Amino acid sequence: PAGEMGLEPLFQAWSYFRRRKFRECADVCSQLLERPPGEQELDSEYTVFQAAWSLKTRALTEMVYVDEIDMDQEGIAEMILDENAVAQVARPGTSLKLPGTGQGGGPSPAVRPVTQSGRPITGFVRPSTQGGRPSTMEQAIKTPRTALTARPITSASGGYIRPGTASMLTNPDGPFINLSRLNLTKYAQKPKLAKALFEYIFHHENDVKNALDLAALATEHAQFKDWWWKVQIGKCYYRLGLYREAEKQFKSALKQQDMVDTFLYLAKVYLRLDQPVTALNLFKQGLERFPGEVTLICGIARIYEEMNNISSAAEYYKDVLKQDNTHVEAIACIGSNHFYSDQPEIALRFYRRLLQMGVYNCQLFNNLGLCCFYAQQYDMTLSSFERALFLAENEEETADVWYNLGHVAVGIGDLNLACQCFKLTLVNNNDYAEAYNNLAVLEMRKGHTEQARALLQTASSLAPHMYEPHFNIAILSEKVGDLQRSYTAAQKSEEAFPDHVDTQQLLKQLKEHFAML
């Protein structure tokens, strides 16, 4: 019987698949699978039943498919209980856990805010940028709230759907394939079916162990000559946390076939093992084989940015734009770099470019508002922030906009408005350390010392990586004569930002005072 427009049903299903209508494709395949399985497809060794089965597995996989390369979330357990520690005290510039300070000519923390791991805030949010690498368990549980959830990030949140739930999403009658009853050896000997089945088990069912068993049997059947299976085994090992085994598989696959994806997977392994220099060398090898490949150049830029080498990162992002002038991440990162280098007019050009490309969200209008303010284009500033508030999708974004409006209010000298803005920031996001700090400064100006101290203590406990609250506590304590508390706070400030001149002067004064005693 013919389907829609008189098409043969299997061709109809394939047409749906090509047009990314995966639900309709799976439904047509289900109808075909209910028929008697004897019909042989012309010019093919497969029956209609096998073809429909294969197509349905691919359609179900595509519904929940997440690209493994960008989907890299390090959970609390992976960060704190990391058994792959190579060196506890790494040489400067060779570890992501201890990024070098100011070695790449980037702005200091006084100008460009840093994350809790000591890295400057980037211009583009990626899974790994917000969480950072917390130094204590308490800090890990408190801060990294990526994926916009209230709980700290774990490797289960975000991209990986928990086993069993994907089949409920895509197949209301229960799982399409009962994995426990599959004869994996039989499927491993049919390469065309095996590849579709592997992706189904890995992405749809999220059953890494069975996927690994199938891949091992299939690569054995292919006499270890198929690079694709080696990459898949590497992906399974990576998910299971066996990084050295994954590295061997990816290297073996690269010997057989140069593929950009394999370079990216192998670099992910090195970054997880905290070996950024090895990852950089690997990307550069990749660029020799694939000159001008955007993802590889972008990978180099990201690593330099994570290692606080801002000038090198900016150069590589410019190389990305030479190859692909609509690359959102590169434009955003170069824009933020110009903004923090005191060139808001140039940053404005990059953000306007994003707007012309069709990026239309709260973050962009927020950045446009700040650039306009610092470039003294005051007519555009408030309208940009109004648009940002209108486009905000959650309370965190609203809090960011109100915080920046508070800065604008301080800039024009309206301190009452600034106070209101910072309070609105805290209404939307109660953990906003910067807003607590700035409110405390405003309270200090009014002479409310105790309120200011309480606000500063809240800020310093929420963000121990920021030097401003510690320094402000030190100054406040010194004014009221509590020199011991002032000294301990100043030491914390120096730890967070060693080159801060005011902190060093305060410590020097306090030491002289203690010496006199």
UniProtKB/TrEMBL annotation:
SMART domains per UniProt: TPR
SUPFAM superfamilies named among the record's database cross-references: TPR-like
Entry keyword set: TPR repeat
Ranges for region Disordered: 98-136
Cellular component aspect of the GO annotation: BBSome; ciliary basal body; non-motile cilium
UniProt-listed GO biological process terms: non-motile cilium assembly
Compositional bias segments (type: Polar residues): 127-136
Keyword Chloroplast: no
InterPro entries: BBS8, TPR-like_helical_dom_sf, TPR_rpt
PANTHER family per record: TETRATRICOPEPTIDE REPEAT PROTEIN 8
Stated name of the protein: TTC8 protein
Organism of origin: Rhabdornis inornatus
